[in-house]
């Protein structure tokens, strides 16, 4: 597979910063003749095509905020967007909303489209908040943004989120306390969700702390349905010693897994307990109710807008704000004690 050439790749080849590469390409500020020559040589050698993000950057900004989320169908993102909309409206701004459908490759295109509309700033949930060429470029161009749900380990990136690993660790400890010793971890594709990876870290930490063997993650398609998930789960849950519980990386996946297990002839929670993550309202409306980590998703959207405006108006240093979570008991989690 050919290597993807980004502005970071050019900066590494030229031996300078991403911001310097941006200044050379966009002629936005002077640089030394030697540095400019190195950058232009690197661009030519690597075949780099400059992004429209830099070309579209203008002084004039509209009273709109660009929003990029993974899915329009997941209620957790809908709740966050509702919070963003309320907070933006208070500040006489509107939202331009787009979704990647969990395709990391769509992020750059959607961000370029939004920046071309001269949005005042961006709020995003991306596939990977640490290794992300689109965020690199936004930073190089000085375009303000705040991540929501993502929890970047890399410094200098603004975000509003929960402690994904800590929350999943607490939920796993609850399952262990209920007598479960073999707990499966079911997730969306790690390549499309750094949240799923962080939550797996919390699950693994809790299992190891209890002296239990963590299961390897079983990655499923977030947008799959119960029949497709049943096919993927058949080998694991029809084995000789199947897990007694399944911890899912989000609530929509957990609800689909409940349906898939029923398709396989297994009862929840009599045969297998299931828990999710997010705390969507639908999880409390089904029977049995879904055990989950309840996160303040609407508040995340509100706080993300507030943080973005603080950055725009005062030039505040990007920071990560962790909001509290709670464990919500539900009928899908039964005791094995």
TrEMBL record:
PROSITE patterns: HTH_LACI_2. It comes from the Bacteria. The keyword Ubl conjugation does not apply. Transmembrane segments: none annotated. Signal peptide: none annotated. Residues 5-59 form the HTH lacI-type domain. It is an enzyme of class 5 (isomerase). Keywords: DNA-binding, Isomerase, Transcription, Transcription regulation. PANTHER family: LACI-RELATED TRANSCRIPTIONAL REPRESSOR (PTHR30146), TRANSCRIPTIONAL REGULATORY PROTEIN (PTHR30146:SF138). It holds the Pfam family LacI. Its EC number is 5.1.1.1. GO terms for molecular function: alanine racemase activity; DNA-binding transcription factor activity; transcription cis-regulatory region binding. This is Alanine racemase. The keyword Transit peptide does not apply. InterPro entries: HTH_LacI, LacI/GalR-like_sensor, Lambda_DNA-bd_dom_sf, Peripla_BP_I.
């Amino acid at each position: 597979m050919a290597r993807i050439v980004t502005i970071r790749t050019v900066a590494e080849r030229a031996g300078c910063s991403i911001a310097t590469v941006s200044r050379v390409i966009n002629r936005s500020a002077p640089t030394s003749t030697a540095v400019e020559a190195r950058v232009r040589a690197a661009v030519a050698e690597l075949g780099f095509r400059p992004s429209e993000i830099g070309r579209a950057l203008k002084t004039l900004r509209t009273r709109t905020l660009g929003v990029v989320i993974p899915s329009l169908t997941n209620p957790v993102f809908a709740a966050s967007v509702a919070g963003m909309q309320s907070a933006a409206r208070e500040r006489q701004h509107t939202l331009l909303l787009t979704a990647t459908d969990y395709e990391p490759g769509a992020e750059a295109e959607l961000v370029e489209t939004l920046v071309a509309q001269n949005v005042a700033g961006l709020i995003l949930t991306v596939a990977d908040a640490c290794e992300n060429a689109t965020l690199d470029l936004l930073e190089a161009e000085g375009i303000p943004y705040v991540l929501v749900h993502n929890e970047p380990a890399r410094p200098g990136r603004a975000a509003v989120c929960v402690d994904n690993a800590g929350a999943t660790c607490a939920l796993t400890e609850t399952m262990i306390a209920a007598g479960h010793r073999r707990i499966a971890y079911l997730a969306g594709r790690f390549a499309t969700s750094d949240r799923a990876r962080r939550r797996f870290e919390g699950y693994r930490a809790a299992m190891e702390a209890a002296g239990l063997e963590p299961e390897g993650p079983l990655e499923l398609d977030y947008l799959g349905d119960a029949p497709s998930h049943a096919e993927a789960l058949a080998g694991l849950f029809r084995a000789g010693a199947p897990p007694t519980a399944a911890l899912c990386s989000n609530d929509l996946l957990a609800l689909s897994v409940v349906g898939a297990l029923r398709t396989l002839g297994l009862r929840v929670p009599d045969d297998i307990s299931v828990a999710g993550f997010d705390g969507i309202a639908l999880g409390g409306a089904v029977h049995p109710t879904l055990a989950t980590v309840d996160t303040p998703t609407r508040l995340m959207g509100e706080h993300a807008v507030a943080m973005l405006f603080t950055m725009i108006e005062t030039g505040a240093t990007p920071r990560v704000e962790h909001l509290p979570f709670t464990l919500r008991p539900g009928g899908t989690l039964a005791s094995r004690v």
